[in-house]
Amino acid sequence: MSAGWFRRRFLPGEPLPAPRPPGPRASPVPYRRPRFLRGSSSSPGAADASRRPDSRPVRSPARGRTLPWNAGYAEIINAEKSEFNEDQAACGKLCIRRCEFGAEEEWLTLCPEEVSSYPAAPWWVRGQLGKSGHYWALFDGHGGPAAAILAANTLHSCLRRQLEAVVEGLVATQPPMHLNGRCICPSDPQFVEEKGIRAEDLVIGALESAFQECDEVIGRELEASGQVGGCTALVAVSLQGKLYVANAGDSRAILVRRDEIRPLSFEFTPETERQRIQQLAFVYPELLAGEFTRLEFPRRLKGDDLGQKVLFRDHHMSGWSYKRVEKSDLKYPLIHGQGRQARLLGTLAVSRGLGDHQLRVLDTNIQLKPFLLSVPQVTVLDVGQLELQEDDVVVMATDGLWDVLSNEQVAWLVRSFLPGNQEDPHRFLKLAQMLIHSTQGKEDSPTEEGQVSYDDVSVFVIPLHSQGQESSGH
Amino acid sequence: MSAGWFRRRFLPGEPLPAPRPPGPRASPVPYRRPRFLRGSSSSPGAADASRRPDSRPVRSPARGRTLPWNAGYAEIINAEKSEFNEDQAACGKLCIRRCEFGAEEEWLTLCPEEVSSYPAAPWWVRGQLGKSGHYWALFDGHGGPAAAILAANTLHSCLRRQLEAVVEGLVATQPPMHLNGRCICPSDPQFVEEKGIRAEDLVIGALESAFQECDEVIGRELEASGQVGGCTALVAVSLQGKLYVANAGDSRAILVRRDEIRPLSFEFTPETERQRIQQLAFVYPELLAGEFTRLEFPRRLKGDDLGQKVLFRDHHMSGWSYKRVEKSDLKYPLIHGQGRQARLLGTLAVSRGLGDHQLRVLDTNIQLKPFLLSVPQVTVLDVGQLELQEDDVVVMATDGLWDVLSNEQVAWLVRSFLPGNQEDPHRFLKLAQMLIHSTQGKEDSPTEEGQVSYDDVSVFVIPLHSQGQESSGH
């Protein structure tokens, strides 16, 4: 994604501002230099911040970094907005084990080294509790790569902690009212049944809490290191035969099958969350410090509009009406611009994500964080219920892809490429590469009028069928 | 709909509490005794509060009141919870005329007397601007019928005012940035185009504003007369070839065609709006006065649960998690109960509607109004784009119907009845009657296990096809 006045291009080789030592107001959490994803094909892996020693950051090549992770094929391109890619990715095996009392078991490991030991069964079958699941994540940074890097190194650990905390509920046939399984009221199971609470609701809750926890970690770490920035987050998790897609920001995941295109996420931007954002400014007008107007108009108003009746929308309206323009309506709008150009407080193009705790409107003290949510929306794909075909895939990508390719165009590329390349062990990787290259204005690109993406672009292609797994060349 | 402690049954003939004269805190708006809908088949019509002199209230018969309105067929049954039906309906022709400068034209009339002068064209063709549209409304009262009666007498006038205010925008090809059509910026039309603002957005805005205005009128009138109560509101408006359905509460409208069942509204209850309501209590904890807990649990907690980890949800969660029970969690939950039994603050079964300005939790000073929205959600059915069949209808009904009949069961009844009765000029009325009777536990009822509705029930059947209009016997 892109953020208004963050669009500074760092020249190749130009160093990022050095992290400042923690100041007197810094958090007591010690600063850990963020580790970068190692991107070469010979060393796939996502760092587990809580377990593995720090490694030297490896600068990602400017273009065409290839991350052939296990059970998912990533292609990432850096638009050179900064020396380090503002897009970051993480991916790995996800093992959750039930912890017996007193036993010191690992709860969750992201252990790409174990790829070669994978059994032949497809990941969604193996993704049973006590066996392995998978985790894929894309983070699109703004204001520098710091938040995206922290998120790539941290979020899976937060998710592990949150899943650990409810694992007794996950392994039960039905989540018990009390985590220890003790029944205080004889009809407790009936209450849980009536509320329709299933194990998948605990995973959704864990993802929601993990995003919030990660946001707090990023806030502390950035403050401690004197860095700034934020990022979007799109996460897919396979567990117990289901694929959970959690999204906070403007990345997107879709399911592509022979006869179906199904969105698995929805974008959160100042436009899609207009009413929530206006509502907050209505409840807390002091957040705008008298500098912005809460109301939406088709364009920014000027002196000539004073006294006229113009189109407007307020927080309670999904339709439009007319109002007589007063002087206060001439202020800069809380949400302004259209489509890709829409900005929250003239600054940010997304309304959910991680980080941005210090972000203020340029030359003011107006904070953006109160308007941002770190909570994702989670959708659940019951993979076990699908009659999977060999070429069924999930495509996850940052907005750099979706700005120039529609869901239909991506599906067309998937369906054009995969059936003719079923023997190629690298076909999913090549598909991810092709999707990226289709955003670069090549002649054979399916984009309208050869549209080109000038943004960072990251793509995961996740095969759903076991055949995809077997032919992946591992 | 029903409201927890409002479920007092008034005995037939027992008078309602007499309205008190306005006290010192009464609104300056003079109290007008509400007029009741005249329900006999010989005098169909909806009163226009702003134009017609008050008429003596006519008590609705306890059961089986028949309202064969023009272009819509209503059947209303009173569950005798009060002497007057808590369900109220309004329906009529809707004429909007463009007011030329200086001309004293009527802008909108609800004029059922003109039914016989209807041309043969279907209502949705005639519903062009400058010609007539239609208005149907169902109001389901709680705490007495006062709010529902006021809404039935008032809302269409509010809608008229709101549509009047934007009529210049409605008649333009595209709503102009400035209501007077003057172009201050040469690219103003382009700004409006880019925002995708169409005439239908002005109708949606007018409906949203009309509901709010009506809510304010009800608040003033009830306060002035010392009465209390609230109501849900479900409104359908035909205009310019489209059907707008605005809903605030738990009534429902569906489109039934030969091969399609399409919901045209969505219910607003403490369950469906849980996150919005919890969010408000999070922002303004003082609204709960220390008496309620914002959190949701599968059941109300008690002393034995203290210190245990139990399932819970907070405002930011769509999933569930576990928390350790503290003393404050033992308070009564902000939203409690399940399905039909779910209550906001232990009191109210809906989260949107009109009125309830004085409603407080029993024996406390805790107000419900801050948690209620009067804003409807509006859906638009582009009738002109449908290839209409003769038996395509819209069914609007209060929750008394939907509590015992599913959308599919209603559609089954529609499809079973209409094709065999195409010659019957009263078939839509009979269908409405049959739908009502199906909620009364008759042997041939399609409801599961002979379910019976003990609530008031009101049904509109609106034929969409011109044939339905022609065969209606007018």
List its salient traits.
globular; homodimer; disordered N terminus; 22% helix; disordered C terminus; 474 residues; Phosphatase 2c, domain 1; 10 helices; alpha+beta; 19% strand
Q: Topology, pairings included?
A:
2 copies of one chain form a homodimer.
Chain A: E1 65-67, E2 73-77, E3 87-95, H1 123-126, E4 132-142, H2 146-165, H3 167-171, H4 188-194, H5 199-225, E5 230-239, E6 242-248, E7 252-257, E8 260-263, H6 274-283, E9 292-293, E10 309-312, E11 321-324, E12 332-333, E13 335-336, E14 343-344, E15 354-355, E16 377-381, E17 393-397, H7 399-402, H8 407-417, H9 427-437, E18 457-463, H10 466-470
Helix pairs in contact in A: 2-5, 8-9
Task: Describe what you observe in this structure.
2 copies of one chain form a homodimer. Chain A has a 6-stranded antiparallel sheet. In chain A, strands 3, 4, 5, 6, 15 and 16 form a 6-stranded antiparallel sheet that branches. The first copy, chain A, starts with 64 loop residues before the first strand and ends with a helix. The longest helix of chain A is centred in the middle third of the chain and has 27 residues, at 199-225. Chain A is globular. Chain A is built from 10 helices and 18 strands. In chain A, helix 2 (146-165) runs antiparallel to helix 5 (199-225) and helix 8 (407-417) crosses helix 9. The first copy, chain A, is α+β, with helices and mostly antiparallel strands and 474 residues long. Chain A has helices at residues 123-126, 146-165, 167-171, 188-194, 199-225, 274-283, 399-402, 407-417, 427-437, 466-470, and strands at 65-67, 73-77, 87-95, 132-142, 230-239, 242-248, 252-257, 260-263, 292-293, 309-312, 321-324, 332-333, 335-336, 343-344, 354-355, 377-381, 393-397, 457-463. In chain A, 22% of the residues lie in helices and 19% in strands. Among the domains of chain A are: 65-99 and 129-184 and 195-265 and 351-438, PPM-type phosphatase domain (Phosphatase 2c, domain 1, 4-Layer Sandwich), CATH 3.60.40; 275-349, no CATH class. Chains A and B meet through helix 4, helix 5 and strand 10 of A and helix 4, helix 5 and strand 10 of B. Chains A, B: Residues 115-464 form the PPM-type phosphatase domain. Chains A, B: Pfam families: PP2C. Chains A, B: Residues 14-27 have a biased composition (Pro residues).
